[in-house]
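Its record is set out here:
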Amino acid sequence: MKRLSILLLLIVITSATVMSQPFRKPKHVLLIRNLRTCKILKVTENSDVSVKSSAGREISGRVKRVSGDTVFFRDTFIRTREIQTIAFNHMQQIPSFQERNPGGTHNRRYEYSAGSPDYQLVCPPDSVYENQWTYTIYFKKLSYETKTAHQKTMNPLHETRNPLGEKVKTDTAFMPGDTGNLLNNDMVRPSGRAKMQYYKNFLKWNMTKLAHLEIAFSYERLIAANLTWETELSAIFGVQSADAYYTISMPLYNYNGFSVTTYPKYYITRSTMYLGVVFMYRYLWANEIRSAWPGNHDNGVLQDQYRNDFGLSLRIGTMKRYGNFVVDFYFGGGIKVIMLHQLAYGNYLYHDSGQTHWYNDDHSPIVSDQVLLGPVINAGIKIGVAF
């Protein structure tokens, strides 16, 4: 009975402690938001830090308390708008995402630098500290907005010289979702309120098409918030002297010609991934090549070919931007209609593959026209610039 009473007492004490958590007022903090890594670091009571002001004043020691935009130490204080750098004095206080002090000091790392666009100082408003519930909700919203801002820096369509858009001067603190502003050395913007700017033009070179002797450039233009239109032009330079029969019979490297592809690209919201339905037209010609395609003609046919290809395919890709430099990866597939005009002069037999057997004594060709179906394979890498 005595054990049961002790157990019930422990349950009551634990329940009361848990229930009291939402009503306990949290202590004030100063937040360092890293826009590059999406991490948020807290400066709280007893944090052992070194702070340098814009005037050159240095303060080192444990934080006594944080109130609004002011950090109090044992015998002095500093306001956030005066802070130039913040560094933690002990390694155990440094999460793995922080950067090493560029000055080379081994026992200290800078977690905030006013001259870097990657960092922001955040002073939560007093309303955040009313209870544990509002405190938790605030940090969830701030974490979500930080991740969203980071995704926009990677989105090729969004302007990222200032990843969060326009800058607004303010001395007030910011609550995500409120009309207030986020403090960052007087260089802030209302989250979700400022108008996002976009890159509208992309000029790219298709590296992959060099593999089949094709030089291709494309231009992409923004036409809506998540919608662009891209057109690619390419020139194909075949090797007429190459013997297609002794490769894979298909005359891949014998054709000369040009190609046009055009398609809309829809970028999934808050993502670099896009979808597109691609229309392709290609005109090709090859003269005096030996190839068994189309069909299977012994050891190949001496022929001329003229082709009009019309293709339709689905393309999935992702385009990332680093400053003004863009990288576009894509893959997909579809089907094409091949309208082939063929002039066949003679064939080659297995027992004397080096001898041409002419179809006509005067070496005139047999002319034929065919309509064939073939696959469209979309896979490649493009690099270029955004402007």
The radius of gyration is 33 Å. The chain has two helices and 19 strands.
